[in-house]
Amino acid sequence: MLSLYYVLRLAFLLIAGVSAQASPFTKYTISAPGINASFIPYGARITNLYVNDKDGNSQDVILGYDNGTQYLHDTETVHTYFGPVVGRYANRIKNGTFTVQGVTSHIPENEHNGEDTLHGGIVGYDQRNWTVVSQNSTTITFSLLDQAFEGFPGTIITYATYTVSPNQWTSRLVSLPLDEPTPIMLANHVYWNLGAFVNSEATTVLNDTLHMPYAARAIEIDSIEVPTGGLEIVNGTFLDFTSPMQIGHNISNAHQCGFNCTGYDNAFILDRPRYSAPEATDLSVLTMSSNATGIQLDIRTNQQSLQIYSCNNMNGTIPVKASQQHGSTTTYVEKYGCVVIETQQWIDGINYPEWGQDQYQIYTVDSEPAVVFAQYDFSIVAT
Questions:
Q1: What is the mean pLDDT of residues 297-315?
Q2: What residues form DSSP beta bridges with 176?
Q3: Model confidence over 17-37: pLDDT tens digits?
Q4: How far apart are CA 381 and CA 338, in angstroms?
Q5: Is a pLDDT exceeding 90 seen at residue 63?
Q6: Which of the residues 109, 119, 180, 189 is marked catalytic?
Q7: Cβ–Cβ under 8 Å, residues 324 and 337
Q8: DSSP line for 99-127
């Protein structure tokens, strides 16, 4: 039975929506040859992404729910962050505290018993009802006016534009401060399974191949997954994906993902080649593929870090979507049943000025806008 709180929260969201927008859980679909994507205003969230496999069959390669209201129930219970924009500051802030131009702000800590802030605080962008401002058959734009949500300084407006073209999805997140200096670091929080759960091998991503050719360094974290200030070289360690490697190859040795954890939940630094540029988008910074479907994903982004999470906390209690049920019995999301890829700047960079991240994370009314560009290209693995 649904709790009274859940019912009241749902009613509030339904009546608090912008006029002419029926519901924050209404699904909007855009499509192009070889790709079909759906979104809801609740969190400017992607709910489905269909691409073709090696046999020409359309497969849904991201996790989520069939019914839009299930995302609200998720938020109030397990809070997976399936598919939304996270912000105003993605990832973690130690002690929920930072200082910008001499002004210290404190954001509610919502993780590790109050020791850090995750994805923007108690009510982050993933729980906000974004407004649909434009849509056609291949693109949709949402907007959100953030009036100092969760204690972040100042007001900002953000536009999330999603576009599909043949075998490609592009996400553009553009944020403009309207008054005070503020940190801004957004990210798409998509759970991927390129195998689409088509068979027993594809119920986890352990056999999927991951390649991050420019991720030669990672950010050191402590037991609550916030940075220590140290940077580490990944060469020869379980974090080394500078050459193609199965995700499960060294995962049993991967223990830098929090207390008593085995798996990946790490921020990889993107050191682009000498003749490129720190925010260049001409290079694929990540390639991932599944043998089960033959689907390959290549990511291009202007961001300087990739947060990789191997779904270490999934425990087989959440069923996959109807589009991903391929057997006679119900398939559930197991541990390592997916991988999250967040294109973003360096985690908690606002608290480590020695990293030189301020120009990429702190914005003012007279600075350039904060832009997160990410392009996802789909193809079939060459044989």
A1: 98
A2: 157
A3: 444 556 999 999 999 999 999
A4: 19
A5: yes
A6: 189
A7: no
A8: EETTEEEEPPP-BTTTTEEETTSTT-GGG
Q: How far apart are CA 45 and CA 67, in angstroms?
A: 13
Q: Which residue has the tokens 């085995």?
A: 262
133: helix, strand or coil: strand
Which value, in Å, is the radius of gyration of the alpha carbons in the chain? 20
Percent of the chain with pLDDT over 90: 93
Average pLDDT across the chain, whole number: 95
Torsion of CA 145, 147, 153, 154, to 10 degrees: 80
Contact 51, 31 (CB under 8 A): no
What value does the mean pLDDT take over residues 61-72?
97
Measure Cα distances from 209 to 242, 247, 296 in Å: 12, 6, 9
Instruction: Say which residue the tokens 């490129």 belong to.
Output: 276
The residue with tokens 């990832």 is 91
Rounded to an integer, the average pLDDT of 3-9 is: 48
State residue 239's pLDDT score: 98
Between CA 353 and CA 41, with CA 124 as vertex, the angle to 5 degrees is 130
Cα–Cα distance measured from residue 274 to residue 309, given in angstroms and rounded to the nearest whole number: 28
Amino acid present at 349: G
Pick from 88, 35, 79: which is nearest to 61 by CA? 35
Annotated catalytic residue 189:
yes
pLDDT > 60? residue 13: no
CA distances from 309 to 51, 80, 325 (A): 22, 12, 23
Report the pLDDT value the prediction gives residue 15, as an integer from 0 to 100.
Answer: 43
Is beta strand 265-269 parallel, antiparallel or unpaired with respect to 305-309? Answer: antiparallel
Tell me the mean pLDDT in the region 263-275. Answer: 97
pLDDT at residue 218 tops 90: yes
Known catalytic residue: 211? no
* Tokens, residue 112: 């590790």
CA-nearest of 324, 336, 345 to 47 is: 324
Question: Which residue in the list 109, 150, 225, 342 is annotated as catalytic?
Answer: 342
